[in-house]
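Form 7-S
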Amino acid sequence: MIFKHPEFLILFILLAIIFYFLRQIKVLHTIGFPKAAWIQTLTSKKAKRLLTFHRWLEFIIFILIIMALAQPQWIQSKKYKTKKGIDIVTILDTSGSMNAEDFKPKNRMTVAKETLVKFINKRENDRIGLVIFGTDALTKAPLTFDHNIIKNRINQTTVGNAGDGTAIGLAIATGVNRLEKSTSLSKIIILITDGVNNAGQIDPISAAKFAKSKNIKIYTIGIGDQKGAPIPIYHPTYGKRYARYPNGQLVLTEFDEATLKSIANISDGAYFNARNAEELSETYKSIDQLEKTVINTSKNNITYDLFPYFIAITFIFFLIKEALSLTTLLGVKT
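Output:
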């Protein structure tokens, strides 16, 4: 408890002095009574005890008045945690090579979507957007806190939705445009690809420098083994077949690891190679650890004024004192 006007507390010294001198004075309270027997009743031990109680009431009333003048206050402190999330744009490659089945028993696209949804489930305080790319780069969902929308868009995404090419530079530039006006303290792009840039008018390095100028970090994830994997093709008549060169040799997937590393380094991000579902899950865990939500702790003080309670109690004690003064205390010799 604190006092808004503690200077009034000095009155306690004056009060102590006054009551000290009053105790040295003998006072005779008298009033005319028609019968002497009434006076005898008033000088009984019970009446004297009531008179002592009356004096203590006066003392307490003065104490309460001084306390009310000093305006006592009760301070209650409450701590609040404010979470500041991160703005994240996920960029998912939908080129034909994402059908590769080296992530058995599922293909790369299926595993990429499943692990991405799990990652989003952990980022409840962040705004997340989705860009898919092939020959073109398409914004499937702008930055939003409604993660159900993002997860629905991911589940609806299939290989070939944005063409069969791999426009990595264009995809990064699109992601940067989605984040450019963000006021978040931390802005990141997660690029998931298993191909080599072979489409679009923006090269990946220039796009990475553009992201750096906007204070955007890029985490690049190269999916699949660098040795490559066969690419299945689904023919309406012949069913599943594998892509081959004109000479009959199988076409194997590939990605430009050097370029993906450069993109990450230029933008102060990080590069990961995920050769299977487990490594892809670990990659997302690593990003989750690197990009922590900022939690600020603030304290708010709530002040409660107590002087109205002191005034109310003073009034009650004053009524009690006056009731005693108008009854059996009159005429008691002290």
